[in-house]
Inverse folding.
C-alpha cells in the first residue's frame, strides 16, 4: 500500500505543531500514529465526497451511474492529490504512468461503488 497517507498525516501534524510521539517513545509508535491518522484522513475525504453527492441527489441531480461514478472518483482524487501536493508531500508532475494508474484506478472504483450504492438505496 502507499505511504502517501501517512506522510500526509505527518506533514499536516508538523504544520499544525502537533507531536505524534512523546519524548522517549519508540519511533514505531509515531509511525503507527501517522499511519492511523493517514487512514482517517482518507476516510474523511472519501465520506465527504459521498455525502456531497448524496445531498446533490436529494436536491434533484440524477445522472447515469457511470458518469457520476467517474466524477465522484475524480473529485476524491483531486481533493486527496491537491492536499498532498499543497503541503509538499508529493508532486504529480513527477509520477509515471504506473503512479497515475495506481491513483486513478482505486479512485474510479470508489466512485463507481458510491454511485451504484446510492442508486440502489435511493432509485
Amino acid at each position: 500500500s502507499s505511504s502517501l497517507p501517512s506522510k500526509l498525516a505527518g506533514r499536516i501534524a508538523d504544520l499544525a505543531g502537533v507531536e505524534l510521539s512523546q519524548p522517549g517513545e519508540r519511533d514505531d509508535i509515531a509511525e503507527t500514529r501517522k499511519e492511523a491518522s493517514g487512514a482517517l484522513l482518507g476516510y474523511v475525504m472519501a465520506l465527504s465526497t459521498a455525502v456531497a453527492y448524496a445531498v446533490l441527489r436529494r436536491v434533484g441531480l440524477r445522472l447515469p451511474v457511470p458518469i457520476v461514478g467517474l466524477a465522484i472518483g475524480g473529485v476524491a482524487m483531486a481533493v486527496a492529490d491537491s492536499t498532498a501536493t499543497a503541503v509538499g508531500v508529493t508532486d504529480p508532475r513527477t509520477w509515471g504512468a504506473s503512479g497515475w494508474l495506481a491513483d486513478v484506478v482505486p479512485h474510479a472504483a470508489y466512485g463507481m461503488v458510491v454511485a451504484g450504492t446510492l442508486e440502489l438505496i435511493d432509485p
Notes: The chain has a mean pLDDT of 90.
